[in-house]
Amino acid sequence: MKEKLAQLSQQLYVKLAWRTLLIGLLIGLLAAVYETTSRYKAVAEGRDGEFSYLLNASFQPASRASYLQDESLAGEVAHGLLGVPAVYQVIILDRQGRELISVSREKFQPGLLARLLFTSEQQYRLPLVVPDDLAAMPGAAGAEESRGELFVALDREVIAQQYWRHFLRTLADESLGGLMVALLLSLVYYYWVTRPLGRISAVLRKARPENIGETRLEMPPRHESDEIGLIVGTLNRLIADLQHSEELRRADEEQLRLLASIFEHSHDAIVIADAEANLETVNPAFTEITGYAADEVVGKNPRLLQSGRQSQEFYEGMWKALLEKGFWTGEVWNRRKDGSFYSGWLSISVQRNEQGQIEHFIGVTSDNTVYKAAQERIKQMAYYDQLTGLPNRSLLQDRADRLLAQVRREEKPFALMFIDLDNFKRVNDSLGHPVGDLLLQEVARRLVECVREVDTVSRQGGDEFVVLLPDTDSDGARHVAEKILASLSEPHHLEGHEVVATPSIGISLFPRDAQDFEDLTKHADTALYRVKEQGRAGFQFFTNEMNVIVHERQVMEDALRQAVADRKFTLHYQPQIDLSRGSIVGMEALIRWNDPELGDVEPDTFIPLAEEVGLIVQIGTWVLHEACAQNRQWQDMGLPCLPVAVNVSALQIHQADFVQVVADALDKAGLEAKYLELELTERAVMEFAEQTVQTMQQLNALGVGLSVDDFGTSYSSLTYLRRFPLKKLKIDKSFVHDLPVNADDRTISNSIILLAHGLNAAVVAEGVEDERQLEILRGQGSDAAQGFHFSKPLPPEEFAALLRAAKAK
């Protein structure tokens, strides 16, 4: 209740009502005081209306009584005046000045008010004259001769009490009128002023910053043009401005929160320094990057981070840019708390006040450590081989361009080597790519050991490497090539496998062979292929004659690819003769290729090329299918059922699905597995002996016969030979050719026959061309033979006739 009363007392209309009522009362009081004071002055000056009237009314009777010395009349006049409350004494003197009558009553003791109002007695003396009606009588005295007098004395206390009562009546009357006027004014104020203001106040009281946009003041009726209307309009504009300001404030707060969040959570170091460049605050990233906590650096100059890796001129340039332009951006090298260095990208801006004086420096530093590492990784990826870490083709080109510019000025030579690993594809196919990758890494390591620091060893892709040898002539290049050949020819022990990957090296020289890097590259590549043509595992310098060979080789490669696509090959068949009975016991399928432009191309020419360019697997698969199909066709014709021998490349047998390829060829032709023999070279068998054992055992389980071709031309491990499920060993024709005249060849052939028989394998001698060779082989115990002495390889139709003739015998 007290709170409600307190709230009510604070209302404007209540305050105005109280003040209006007080003003009304004050006006009544002032009016009463004024009227009473005026009357007092009139009494004091003898101008009191009522008393003057009494005196004037008593003047004529008193004058008559005084002149006639009529005591009775004088008594009436005196007692009449004494009846006035304020009169306490009346004296009338006759015309001779003698007391005619004197009457009085008890006088009140004057109080405080009486003493304040009247400092002396209040007395009136009125001279009496001869009345007009008596003055006309004969003998009447003149007015000037009359000394009659009317004396009236007033009681001050009675007068004071009359004044007080009059004052109170007047005060009450005036106050009541003032109150009525005040009440009327309060109502007018309430309906015209305070009620509209109250409504405005009520709306404003509910307004809050969060809902200021919903606050609107309605214009009170008939107040559009007065001050209240002005207030409403002004407040509505202020509210709109407040709403806009609130929106701006919220936006600023959001911006500040965002900036604070950025400051706190940024990965970049942010520092704020004063005008003297002393640090005022740092963010957490600064601590993370530099190792300094905030309390360790606040108040200090950032120069404590200087690494000493940048000159004084660098920092002078920075400050010059800051003072002239207001900002600076660049890379700096700083020192962490632990003493380590880091690269940072620093941006500094200057904050000035309205007078243009510097107030703060704001610095943002990003740690370039990760960026630099990323740059190095990108550079590594862009310019270095990811497997070996050697420079790649792009970096080699860049170094070659620089070297060319240098040697042209200094007239110095340099050498370029192209290196290719022999049979690398076979390693990948047989042992898997992980082992192949290890081999490439080991080759890269050995190559780097063979050259100087100024030389460049680059991997171009696959098993191709390039070596750039500055300031090197032909003798120096030959020396390096011999070191590389010797190093890479040593076996590599990888994942439990012993792998030999000899290199073929082609060399070109500047300025002898070419004047630009592109031609040098082509010439080194040409020399490389010349090495491969001559048997690999060696090196060759480029010569002009090699261009002709390269061109011929390219023509043959193009024709070979077309022949594979169009299946332009044929198979010829050569019989294998049992030396004890002279009958045909088998046949070997031999591929032939006749090109419209090149003519008949020997297998010894295009088979190595097919292996080199990756076509041998396709060709070998075609030979398998064709030989199986032809053999089955002859059997269906009623010709003798004989096994057909098919030469298999090392690349074929090391294919993961080779056994399935053989099975598919047999299944498609409908040929029993016992009528198919696969001939593998001794080198192919022994190169990856462990894997070859598994493959050969699977083929043997399939029922396919297996033989080793060209036996004796390579070194074979007897341990592995015993594990191979071999059906035949074939003596290479190089040993057969000189049997009649060469004792060593006879010894070798005899040893092979003994070894084969010891392994329960039959022996077939290749390349038998005359009777003398035949007799020696028969005497040594060879089981069979083949060669021109019996028959050259025949096309299918002619070989079918040979079979018919053999059957007829």
Keywords:
alpha/beta; five-stranded antiparallel sheet; eight-stranded mixed beta barrel; rod-shaped; 809 residues; Beta-Lactamase; single chain; 5 domains
Outline the structure in words.
By secondary structure, the chain is α/β, with parallel strands linked by helices. It has five domains: 29-169, Beta-Lactamase (2-Layer Sandwich), CATH 3.30.450; 207-265, no CATH class; 269-373, Beta-Lactamase; 384-543, Reverse transcriptase/Diguanylate cyclase domain (Alpha-Beta Plaits, 2-Layer Sandwich), CATH 3.30.70.270; 560-803, EAL domain (TIM Barrel, Alpha-Beta Barrel), CATH 3.20.20.450. It is built from 29 helices and 25 strands. The protein has an eight-stranded mixed barrel, surrounded by six helices. A five-stranded antiparallel sheet has the order 6-5-9-8-7. It has a five-stranded mixed sheet with strand order 11-12-10-15-16, sandwiched between helices. Helix 2 (12-44) packs antiparallel against helix 7, helix 3 (49-68) packs antiparallel against helix 4 (71-82) and helix 15 packs antiparallel against helix 16 (474-489). The N and C termini lie far apart (145 Å). 32% of the residues are buried.
